[in-house]
C-alpha cells in the first residue's frame, strides 16, 4: 500500500490523499485550502502523477474536503466520484456556491486565477457523482479498466456524525485494509448523533487531529455549555442588544438552529425571527427534507417550520435597525471579508449592548480569530477591509464543536488496532500530542506524519 498526502500544507488545508492498492488508485477527498487563494489553494494533484485514478471518494461536503473536485476531475478525467447518498444531495450546491464566491473574489480582490472552475463545468461533471448508503461495500476499482478483474478492492462509508452525509471510509483489499476517518464526531450534537465507527478494524489508519492541541476540561459537559449559551443570549436581550453567532453554512448553522428551536419551544428563549444566510437556508431545507434518512435526534423537528427564518440579504446587513434585539446565525464562521458575519461584526462591535458568540473554531489568522482574541476597548487589526477596529461589544466562546475530542480519538486508535497511524488534518501541536500519546499507550504502532506530496510505502 502506498499513500501520498496531496495537502499542500502540513496543517489543516486542502484535504486529499492518494491511495495506491493492489494496482489500483483511489483519491480520498479533493478539498481547497481554507486560508489560501488561487491555484495555491489546490491539492498537489501533480504529485499524484498522471496515471489514471479509478475513483474519487468524498468524505463530506465541507469546502476543505470537496471544493477542488472539478479540478481533480480535470486531472483524472476517467475517475468516478463516490460519496454518501446524503452528500449527493449537497455536493452540487456546495460547488456552485464556490463558483459564486470565486467570481466575487476575482471582482473584489483582483484574483485573476478565479474562478478555478465554472458553473457549466459543475453541471458537466455532475453525472459522474454517485451516492451510496452507509455500510454498503462498493467495488470502486471495477468501474473502469479493472472491470474484468476479479476481487476488486472495495470501499465502505461509515457514518462520521460530523455533518449531514459525513463519512469515514474503509478501503478493503485482498491483503490489507485502510480506514480514513475524515472529520469525525464521537458525541451527539443537537441534531446529528455520534459517529458509528463500531467494529472498525484496519491495518492503516489515516486520522484527523483537529483538536489534538485542546484537551477536555474536567467536568465539561455539552449540556452545561448549551445552558451557558442560552443564558448569555437572554442576558443580551435583556439589555436590548443583538447577538451574532458566526457559523458555517453547512452543519454548524443547522445545529445551532436546532438548539434555538428546542429552547424556544421550551420557553427558555422568546420566539422571534432568526436571521440566516441564503446558503444556510438552502442547507437547512436539505436537513429537513432528509431527516428521515439521517441518524439523528428529533426526526420530527423541521427547522423551517419550527423557526421564523429570515434570509439576510446584503442590503439588510448594512441597513437593518439594531435598536431592537435581533438574533443572527450567519456565515462565514471565520468572518471572512464580504460576508454577513464580517459586516455585522463591524456594526455590532462599537456598542456594549451587543454580543458576538463563537460556537466553533476560528483560525487565529482570520478576522474571526482576531475578533475573538481582541480585548474590549483596545484597537486591533480586524481585516484588510477594516484595518483598525475597537471592540466594545461582548465576546464569548462556546465549545459546541463537531469534531471528536482528542481523548476519544486516542481510544479509537486502540479499537482499530492498526499497525500504522497516519496523522493529518491538524496543526503541529495537535499532531505532536497524538504522536506522543499513541507512542505511550500503543508502543507497537508505527506513527507517520507525511510531508506534502511525499509517497509513503506502508
Keywords:
single chain, 458 residues, alpha/beta, six-stranded mixed sheet, 14 helices, 18% strand
Strand percentage lies at 15-25%
- Largest sheet strand order: 6-5-4-3-2-1-21
Sheet bearing the most strands, described?
7 strands, mixed
Low-confidence stretches: none
Could you please describe the fold and organization of this structure?
The protein is of the alpha/beta class and 458 residues long. Strand 8 and strand 9 form a beta hairpin. The radius of gyration is 22 Å and the shape is globular. The mean pLDDT is 95.
Walk me through the topology.
Elements: E1 2-5, E2 17-21, E3 24-28, E4 55-57, H1 63-66, H2 69-75, E5 80-84, H3 85-88, H4 91-109, H5 119-125, E6 129-132, E7 154-159, E8 167-172, E9 177-180, E10 204-208, H6 222-238, E11 243-246, H7 252-265, E12 274-276, H8 278-289, H9 303-306, E13 309-311, H10 314-319, E14 327-330, H11 340-349, E15 355-358, H12 367-373, E16 379-380, E17 389-390, E18 394-397, H13 406-416, E19 420-424, H14 428-441, E20 446-448, E21 455-457
Parallel strand pairs: 3-4, 4-5, 5-6, 9-10, 10-19, 11-14, 11-15, 12-13, 12-14, 15-18, 19-20
Antiparallel strand pairs: 1-2, 1-21, 2-3, 7-8, 8-9, 16-17
Amino acid at each position: 500500500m502506498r499513500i501520498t498526502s496531496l495537502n499542500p500544507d502540513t496543517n489543516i488545508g486542502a484535504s486529499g490523499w492518494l491511495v495506491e492498492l493492489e494496482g489500483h488508485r483511489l483519491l480520498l477527498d479533493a478539498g481547497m485550502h481554507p486560508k489560501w487563494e488561487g491555484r495555491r489553494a489546490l491539492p498537489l494533484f501533480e504529485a499524484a502523477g498522471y496515471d489514471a485514478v479509478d475513483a474519487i471518494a468524498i468524505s463530506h461536503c465541507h469546502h476543505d474536503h470537496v471544493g477542488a473536485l472539478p479540478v481533480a476531475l480535470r486531472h483524472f478525467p476517467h475517475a468516478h466520484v463516490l460519496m454518501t447518498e446524503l452528500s449527493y444531495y449537497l455536493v452540487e450546491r456546495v460547488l456552485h456556491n464556490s463558483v459564486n464566491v470565486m467570481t466575487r473574489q476575482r471582482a473584489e480582490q483582483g484574483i485573476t486565477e478565479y474562478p478555478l472552475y465554472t458553473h457549466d463545468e459543475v453541471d458537466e461533471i455532475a453525472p459522474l457523482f454517485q451516492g451510496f448508503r452507509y455500510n454498503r461495500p462498493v467495488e470502486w476499482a471495477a468501474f473502469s479498466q479493472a472491470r474484468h478483474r476479479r476481487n476488486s478492492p472495495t470501499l465502505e462509508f461509515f457514518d462520521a456524525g460530523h455533518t449531514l452525509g459525513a463519512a469515514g471510509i474503509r478501503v478493503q483489499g485482498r491483503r490489507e485494509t485502510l480506514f480514513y476517518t475524515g472529520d469525525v464526531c464521537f458525541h451527539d450534537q443537537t441534531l446529528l448523533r455520534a459517529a458509528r465507527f463500531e467494529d472498525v478494524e484496519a491495518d492503516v489508519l489515516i486520522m484527523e487531529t483537529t483538536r489534538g492541541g485542546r484537551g477536555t476540561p474536567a467536568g465539561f459537559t455539552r449540556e452545561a455549555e448549551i445552558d451557558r449559551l442560552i443564558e448569555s443570549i437572554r442576558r443580551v436581550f435583556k439589555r436590548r442588544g443583538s447577538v451574532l453567532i458566526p457559523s458555517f453554512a453547512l452543519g454548524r448553522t443547522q445545529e445551532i438552529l436546532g438548539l434555538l428551536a428546542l429552547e424556544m419551544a421550551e420557553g427558555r428563549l422568546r420566539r422571534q425571527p432568526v436571521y440566516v444566510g441564503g446558503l444556510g437556508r438552502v442547507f437547512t431545507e436539505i436537513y429537513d427534507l432528509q431527516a428521515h434518512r439521517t441518524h439523528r435526534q428529533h426526526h420530527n423537528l423541521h427547522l423551517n417550520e419550527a423557526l421564523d427564518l429570515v434570509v439576510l440579504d446584503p442590503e439588510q446587513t448594512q441597513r437593518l435597525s439594531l435598536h431592537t434585539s435581533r438574533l443572527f446565525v450567519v456565515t462565514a464562521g471565520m468572518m471572512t471579508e464580504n460576508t454577513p458575519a464580517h459586516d455585522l461584526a463591524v456594526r455590532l462591535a462599537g456598542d456594549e449592548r451587543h454580543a458576538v458568540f463563537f460556537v466553533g473554531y476560528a483560525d487565529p489568522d482570520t478576522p474571526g480569530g482576531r475578533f475573538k482574541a481582541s480585548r474590549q476597548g483596545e484597537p486591533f487589526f480586524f481585516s484588510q477591509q477594516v484595518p483598525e477596529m475597537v471592540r466594545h461589544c461582548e465576546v464569548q466562546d462556546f465549545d459546541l464543536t463537531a469534531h471528536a475530542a482528542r481523548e476519544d480519538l486516542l481510544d479509537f486508535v486502540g479499537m482499530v488496532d492498526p499497525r500504522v497511524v497516519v496523522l493529518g488534518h491538524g496543526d503541529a501541536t495537535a499532531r505532536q500530542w497524538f504522536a506522543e500519546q499513541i507512542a505511550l499507550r500503543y508502543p507497537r504502532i508505527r506513527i507517520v506524519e507525511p510531508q506534502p506530496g511525499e509517497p509513503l510505502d506502508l
